[in-house]
Write a structure and sequence with these properties.
By secondary structure, this protein is α/β, with parallel strands linked by helices. The chain is built from 5 helices and 5 strands; from the N terminus they run βββαβαααβα. Strands 3-2-1-4-5 form a 5-stranded mixed sheet. The longest helix is centred in the middle third of the chain and has 16 residues. It catalyses: Endonucleolytic cleavage to 5'-phosphomonoester.
């Protein structure tokens, strides 16, 4: 046997530029692709600012909105408050995406998730780079990818410009703001 040349080496990439690979991937096609729009909303009280239209005394709050435009289910809209660990707008976006995957993954469908958070779309394309470099978001990135890996068909994330007139994004935005305004049941932050 001779030496292995560079051309004989494995095609696998190594190191921080390695892209996320779906471990449960199948070669079969999904029965359907479900479109979903997600958005996150974040608010932080500034000094002296009144908390008008808020139901508690929180100093910061985040909400998520999820909208399924083509759903045959009675309820196409979902929203709520994000947990206290969500401290930034981008964290709320990650939380919304994760919730959409948790609630609506099925064995025979693929989710196509539209978000106005370019960070989330970039993270989905270069998972390992973000894990190594973005320590502040590491928990949210790991959670997102755990959910993505649990799907039979890897969800696709696409960027849609926020506040540009896209009907699905506008509905998700309204739902996220509604979720952000929900009371915190006495657990003010």
């Amino acid at each position: 046997m001779g030496k292995r040349s560079r051309d004989d080496s494995d095609d696998e990439e190594e190191g921080p530029t390695k892209r996320f690979r779906h471990q449960n991937c199948t070669s079969a096609q999904p029965r359907a692709i479900i479109k979903v729009y997600v958005d996150g909303s974040f608010w932080k009280k500034e000094n002296g600012e009144r908390t008008k239209n808020m139901h508690c005394k929180c100093k910061r709050r985040a909400g998520y909105g999820i909208y399924f435009p083509e759903s045959k289910r009675k309820n196409k809209r979902y929203y709520g408050r994000c947990p206290q660990k969500v401290q930034k707008s981008s964290d709320a976006e990650f939380y919304a995406i994760t919730q959409a995957i948790r609630w609506f993954r099925t064995n025979d469908t693929r989710l196509h998730i539209f978000t106005d958070c370019l960070t989330a779309v970039n993270v989905s394309k270069q998972y390992q780079v973000w894990l190594n470099e973005q320590h502040k978001r590491k928990v949210h990135v790991e959670t997102l990818f755990e959910e993505m890996q649990s799907c039979k068909y890897l969800p696709k994330l696409s960027f849609v410009r926020g506040h540009s007139g896209d009907a699905g994004n506008n509905k998700a935005d309204k739902l996220a703001r509604k979720g952000m305004r929900k009371g915190c049941e006495g657990k003010c932050v």
